[in-house]
Amino acid sequence: MDKRKIAALVLCGIMAGSAFAGCGKDIEVSDSGSSSSATEVKAPEEVDIMNFTAPEQGDTIIEMNVRDYGTIKFRLFPEYADKACENFVELAKRGYYDGLTFHRVIKDFMIQGGDPLGTGMGGESTWGGTFDGGSDAHLAHVPGALAYAHAQQPEGASPTGGAGSQFYIVTGSLDIGDDLLSYYEQNGYSFSEKQKAIYKEVGGVPFLDGNYTVFGQVIDGLDVLFNIQYVATDSNDKPLGSSVIIDSVKVTEYNGEPVRWYLKDYDYDDPAKKEIANFTAPEQGETVVSMKIKDYGEVKFKLFPEYLPEAVENFVTHAKEGYYDGLTFHRVIKDFMIQGGDPLGTGTGGESIWGEKFDGGKYFNLIHTAGALAYANSGGTASDGSQFYVVTGTVHDADTIAQQYSCTESAANAYSTYGGAPWLDGGYTVFGQVYDGLDVIFKVQQVETDGSDKPLQNVIIESMTVEEYDGSPIRWHMSDYDGSEAEVTTSAEETTAEETTETASTEAAE
């Protein structure tokens, strides 16, 4: 996790009638001091962390079946969180959770569910309303921990007093060291030595301890949990497309079956270790889009409806209806991107096929490498419309990527080999990739522009057509093009490129 920004991401399960209107806000902590939003706590008791205590024969356990993903089993801790366990068990016995969704999923943090409204605004305890589940120092927010979500409580009230039916399961960071723990402590958080030891060993989300009720731990199905966290989500962290559905939550007994606490106990195919999706070749007959740029040439895009269905639907429909024909690239920044799709040509116009804006979402394995096609926005993916951009970017030094950006190994390889704009990842909807005509994009970025990055001579989209992939050659990278005059700039050659483009990206979109 980037130490410059601790994303505590308050786990708000706002109950009906709650006075709190805010939920899911990031807690930002500056390097110079603690955030007023962070809860400063006294040093916890120096007690053993009991999350990984094996259940005994006959103990009550929970079996949660998640559609299309698999089964997750939990050991409960009534000895430390009796009322919390009672609430969950009684709700499960009533079938309360059956058919509900995980309405909030944040990679490297947690997955959240248990709201009958599916919005983060609903739910109640088995007794009606909310209750105080308490917090016990024996239970920590390690990967696989089961806890209650709740709204932020009034000053002076118990921080765990707003529990209801909503719960979350921790994934967290698997790489926590002394430096990060020290940084947390400098910003108002406090940990026992045994907490520190367990977090350094297994990972988790240390800064949630003391403020939420942990009452269970995954004993089997941790791989299912970690797979769920890679689903594509919208700007509110809600899964896109097919919902992540809890088919059933059953109360059963432990019968001595093997316990698998850690990811290393599974034959886990980690999605984060897979190659980025950008360079997935289109199949014969697959829908692609061809864009002809007047006086420059033709650019062809592979699309990704399997991850971001509405984003692709919007672009394809606009293209079919001729929306983009005759429009211009109104904003061109060398070594960053070219932007178009605005019927006004000013960067202030355009709309989706549904009118106004829509949320195209984001998928972790579609990145801003050279040739990526994405929607411009005005502060988040919920403001996607018709405007799009195609990335050129720069090639980044591998050490710089490791130090400044949080990305997968395959993403880092792409940025250090082919170039791109890694700082945009997570903030924009990447939904396509140039598979032919990348040289055209790189030539367009050489055009002369004014002080607002508008080309002095119009760069016109002559036409945009929807076609079927016919098996023609695929050329993902600039190295695939012979005799191209365009070159990929390296960060070493253009030392101000990142500074310039990072500033520009905050306005990009509209």
Backbone CA Rg: 25 Å
The total tally of domains equals 2
Number of helices: 9
Please give the oligomerization state of what you see: single chain
Reported for the largest beta sheet, the result is: 8 strands, antiparallel
Q: Which term fits the overall shape?
A: elongated
Proportion of helical residues: 10-25%
Task: Report the uncertain regions.
Answer: 1-41, 492-510
Q: Regarding CATH, which class of the largest domain?
A: Mainly Beta
Number of strands: 18
Output the structural class: alpha+beta
Strand content: 15-25%
Strand order of the main beta sheet, please?
3-4-6-5-7-2-1-8
What is the correct CATH architecture of the largest domain?
Beta Barrel
Give an overview of the whole structure.
With 510 residues, the protein is of the alpha+beta class. The protein folds into two domains: 60-270, Cyclophilin (Beta Barrel); 277-505, Cyclophilin-like (Cyclophilin, Beta Barrel), CATH 2.40.100.10. It has an eight-stranded antiparallel beta sheet with strand order 3-4-6-5-7-2-1-8. An eight-stranded antiparallel beta sheet has the order 11-12-14-13-16-10-9-17. Strands 15-18 form a two-stranded parallel ribbon. The chain is elongated and about 75 Å long. The chain starts with 59 loop residues before the first strand and ends in a 5-residue tail after the last helix. It has helices at 82-93, 178-186, 193-202, 222-228, 309-320, 398-404, 409-417, 438-444, 497-505, and strands at 60-66, 70-76, 102-106, 110-113, 145-148, 167-170, 214-220, 246-253, 287-293, 297-303, 329-333, 337-340, 372-375, 388-391, 394-395, 429-436, 461-468, 489-490. 16% of the residues lie in helices and 19% in strands. The protein contains nine helices and 18 strands. Residues 1-41 and 492-510 have low confidence and may be disordered.
